[in-house]
């Protein structure tokens, strides 16, 4: 505005220096100056532009009218009739302040509708950003009035309806952000007329139908993101015309068909994401032409065939995800040429053969996932060259041979999973050198020998699983140093000796399984106070301890198996305080005494096995026919009645101790009356009439219920 005032002053100077043609001209000029400064004074401190040619007044009115429709207009309180609109928050005008050129209300928290905004009054706009508010409604066709618009961002709102075909009139548009809304319908083919468009992002909506081939006309496009929609059909080959494209994101849709070979034309591409679709067929041989690619993700599709050797030409690649497809054949040795690769995931496919030693050339690799394939042979020693590796999962394959000692070079390794293979031999004694290890799983292999004491240096370890191997000897006392353990599974080996006294010294242990070994001695005292426990399996050993005091109260405990040991003593009443317990298995021990009555209040208990002990009591079990409770309503009623029966106590009512509920059958567990209950109720001659005393007993019991 100051610029415009100076222009007028300069104009006055020119008039004053010019020859005076007449008094009328001078008087007229003075009148003009007087009226100008009067107007300037009335709208202090900001000047007001006069003249019918200025659209500012109409734009001001349109924006104030829209503000009035918002649920929280106070957020933009500077939008006030007495304030010059070029000074409003988020508003900028052109050089001469005659029209609004920019509105930026990004993340203001506005609540309202977008279709109440009169776009027809804002034809001078070049930049409109209303993203990340709570604006709803459909994009109105009047948006086509914004013919000068370069930047349009409506992302992160609740906009619905379809993309109007009239948006094609925004011929100057270079950026269009509509992502994270509720926009539905098809992508209009008319978008192909936006010849200046460079960035098109409409991800995270409800769009359906195919990708229009006309998108291939957008020759200046550098970013095309259509992910997280419901787009279907095949990828049009016309996308190969987008030579300037750098980022192509089409994941999380329903796209199918083959990947067009024209994709190899996109030599400027750095990001290519197609994951979570229904794509099929082979990867085009020419894909190696994408020499600038840094991220490629084809995961969770139905791609098949081999990985083309030309993939080794993508030397700038940092992320390569092909997991959850149907790829087969061997991994090409050329893959080792991608020396900048950081993440490699080929898991859940049908790859076979050996892992090529050339993978050891990828010294920048941090993640290597090859699990759930059919790889065979030995784990290559060259993997020890990948010194930056943090996570390696080779599980569910057919690897054999010994565990390579070169793995000890991977000092950054935090996650190692080689379960379900045929790896044999012993674990290297120096394995504890991997001090950053958090997750170690060697389940279901052919390992032999002892667990090395050096494991005690892995103080960060939270998951340690080695079940179903041939480990023997006793556990090293150094394991007590691993105080962060959350899950420890040593089951189905030939381990012996005692469990470390401080096996739950850190108090974090949730899952403990030493099932089917040769452990003996007492239950470690640290387990009694290990309140974090959820699943415990100590069965199939030779533990000998008084069960009365060996266990505490575990609020999260779901499963407890103590069967097939030499435990003695009586069952503690504390078990009733394990509110989440569903399975309690203590069979084949030396337990004596009675079953605590409060077992009947353990409503979540589904499996209770106390068989083959020395308990004093005999219980009566009634099986309920499946058809009686197959209806969900019957199940709910059944559990409600169980609760009533369990809490009811009367001298003439048989006590319900508990129940077991399975999908196909249910059991009620009662105390038994000495003698025959039926004989007590009937006369000795077998008559069906009840005498007064028996009738009174039944009536009194029924009244209690």
Automatic annotation (TrEMBL):
<dbReference type="Pfam" id="PF00560">
    <property type="entry name" value="LRR_1"/>
</dbReference>
<dbReference type="GO" id="GO:0005524">
    <property type="term" value="F:ATP binding"/>
</dbReference>
<keyword id="KW-0808">Transferase</keyword>
<dbReference type="GO" id="GO:0005886">
    <property type="term" value="C:plasma membrane"/>
</dbReference>
<dbReference type="Pfam" id="PF12799">
    <property type="entry name" value="LRR_4"/>
</dbReference>
<keyword id="KW-0547">Nucleotide-binding</keyword>
<keyword id="KW-1133">Transmembrane helix</keyword>
<keyword id="KW-0677">Repeat</keyword>
<dbReference type="InterPro" id="IPR025875">
    <property type="entry name" value="Leu-rich_rpt_4"/>
</dbReference>
<dbReference type="InterPro" id="IPR032675">
    <property type="entry name" value="LRR_dom_sf"/>
</dbReference>
<feature type="domain" description="Disease resistance R13L4/SHOC-2-like LRR">
    <location>
        <begin position="214"/>
        <end position="322"/>
    </location>
</feature>
<dbReference type="Pfam" id="PF23598">
    <property type="entry name" value="LRR_14"/>
</dbReference>
<dbReference type="InterPro" id="IPR001611">
    <property type="entry name" value="Leu-rich_rpt"/>
</dbReference>
<keyword id="KW-0675">Receptor</keyword>
<dbReference type="InterPro" id="IPR011009">
    <property type="entry name" value="Kinase-like_dom_sf"/>
</dbReference>
<dbReference type="InterPro" id="IPR013210">
    <property type="entry name" value="LRR_N_plant-typ"/>
</dbReference>
<dbReference type="InterPro" id="IPR055414">
    <property type="entry name" value="LRR_R13L4/SHOC2-like"/>
</dbReference>
<keyword id="KW-0067">ATP-binding</keyword>
<keyword id="KW-0812">Transmembrane</keyword>
<protein>
    <submittedName>
        <fullName>Leucine-rich repeat receptor-like protein kinase</fullName>
    </submittedName>
</protein>
<keyword id="KW-0433">Leucine-rich repeat</keyword>
<keyword id="KW-0732">Signal</keyword>
<dbReference type="InterPro" id="IPR003591">
    <property type="entry name" value="Leu-rich_rpt_typical-subtyp"/>
</dbReference>
<feature type="domain" description="Leucine-rich repeat-containing N-terminal plant-type">
    <location>
        <begin position="57"/>
        <end position="94"/>
    </location>
</feature>
<keyword id="KW-0472">Membrane</keyword>
<dbReference type="Pfam" id="PF08263">
    <property type="entry name" value="LRRNT_2"/>
</dbReference>
<dbReference type="GO" id="GO:0004674">
    <property type="term" value="F:protein serine/threonine kinase activity"/>
</dbReference>
<keyword id="KW-0418">Kinase</keyword>
<keyword id="KW-0325">Glycoprotein</keyword>
<dbReference type="Pfam" id="PF13855">
    <property type="entry name" value="LRR_8"/>
</dbReference>
């Amino acid at each position: 505005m100051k610029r415009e005032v100076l222009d007028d002053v300069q104009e006055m100077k020119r008039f004053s220096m010019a020859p005076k043609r007449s008094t009328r001209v001078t008087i007229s000029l003075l009148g003009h100056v007087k009226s100008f400064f009067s107007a300037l004074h009335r709208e202090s401190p900001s000047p007001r532009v006069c003249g019918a040619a200025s659209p500012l007044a109409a734009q001001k009115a349109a924006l104030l009218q829209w503000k009035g429709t918002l649920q929280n207009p106070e957020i933009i309180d500077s939008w006030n009739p007495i304030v010059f609109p070029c000074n409003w928050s988020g508003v900028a005008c052109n050089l001469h302040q005659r029209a609004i050129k920019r509105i930026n209300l990004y993340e203001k928290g506005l609540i309202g509708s977008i279709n109440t905004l009169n776009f027809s009054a804002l034809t001078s706009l070049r930049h409109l950003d209303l993203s990340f508010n709570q604006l709803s409604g459909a994009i109105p066709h009047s948006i086509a009035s914004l013919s000068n618009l370069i930047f349009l961002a409506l992302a992160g709102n609740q906009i619905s309806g379809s993309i109007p075909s009239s948006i094609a009139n925004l011929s100057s548009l270079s950026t269009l952000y509509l992502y994270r809304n509720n926009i539905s319908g098809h992508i209009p083919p008319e978008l192909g007329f936006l010849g200046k468009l460079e960035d098109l992002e409409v991800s995270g909506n409800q769009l359906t139908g195919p990708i229009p081939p006309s998108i291939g006309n957008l020759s200046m496009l550098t970013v095309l993101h259509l992910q997280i929609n419901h787009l279907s059909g095949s990828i049009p080959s016309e996308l190969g015309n987008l030579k300037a494209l750098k980022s192509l994101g089409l994941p999380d849709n329903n796209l199918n068909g083959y990947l067009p070979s024209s994709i190899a034309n996109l030599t400027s591409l750095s990001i290519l994401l197609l994951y979570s679709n229904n794509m099929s067929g082979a990867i085009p041989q020419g894909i190696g032409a994408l020499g600038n690619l840094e991220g490629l993700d084809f995961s969770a599709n139905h791609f098949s065939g081999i990985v083309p050797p030309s993939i080794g030409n993508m030397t700038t690649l940092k992320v390569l995800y092909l997991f959850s497809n149907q790829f087969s054949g061997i991994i090409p040795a050329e893959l080792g040429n991608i020396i900048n690769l950081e993440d490699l995931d080929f898991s859940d496919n049908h790859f076979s053969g050996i892992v090529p030693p050339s993978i050891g050339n990828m010294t920048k690799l941090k993640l290597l996932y090859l699990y759930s394939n059919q790889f065979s042979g030995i784990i290559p020693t060259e993997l020890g060259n990948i010194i930056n590796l943090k996570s390696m999962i080779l599980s569910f394959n057919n690897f054999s041979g010994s565990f390579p000692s070169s793995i000890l070079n991977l000092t950054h390794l935090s996650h190692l999973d080689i379960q379900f293979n045929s790896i044999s031999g012993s674990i290297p004694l120096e394995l504890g050198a991997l001090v950053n290890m958090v997750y170690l799983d060697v389940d279901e292999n052919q390992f032999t020998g002892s667990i090395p004491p050096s494991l005690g240096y892995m103080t960060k370890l939270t998951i340690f699983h080695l079940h179903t191997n041939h480990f023997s000897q006793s556990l090293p006392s150094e394991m007590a140093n691993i105080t962060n353990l959350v899950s420890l599974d040593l089951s189905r080996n030939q381990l012996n000796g005692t469990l470390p006294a401080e096996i739950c010294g850190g108090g974090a242990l949730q899952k403990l399984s030493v099932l089917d070994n040769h452990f003996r001695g007492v239950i470690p005292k640290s387990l009694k106070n290990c309140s974090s426990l959820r699943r415990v399996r100590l069965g199939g050993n030779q533990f000998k301890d008084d069960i009365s005091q060996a266990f505490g109260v575990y609020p999260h405990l779901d499963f407890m198996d103590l069967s097939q040991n030499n435990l003695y003593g009586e069952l503690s009443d504390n078990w009733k305080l394990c509110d989440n317990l569903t399975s309690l298995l203590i069979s084949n021990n030396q337990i004596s005494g009675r079953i605590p009555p409060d077992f009947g209040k353990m409503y979540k208990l589904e499996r209770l096995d106390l068989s083959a002990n020395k308990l004093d009591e005999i219980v009566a079990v009634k099986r309920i026919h499946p058809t009686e409770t197959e209806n969900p309503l019957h199940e709910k009623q059944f559990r409600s009645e169980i609760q009533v029966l369990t809490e009811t106590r009367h001298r003439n009512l048989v006590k319900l101790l508990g129940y077991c509920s399975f999908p196909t059958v249910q059991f009620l567990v009662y105390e038994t009356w000495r003698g025959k209950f039926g004989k007590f109720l009937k006369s000795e001659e077998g008559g069906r009439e009840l005498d007064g005393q028996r009738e009174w007993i039944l009536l009194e019991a029924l009244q209690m219920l």
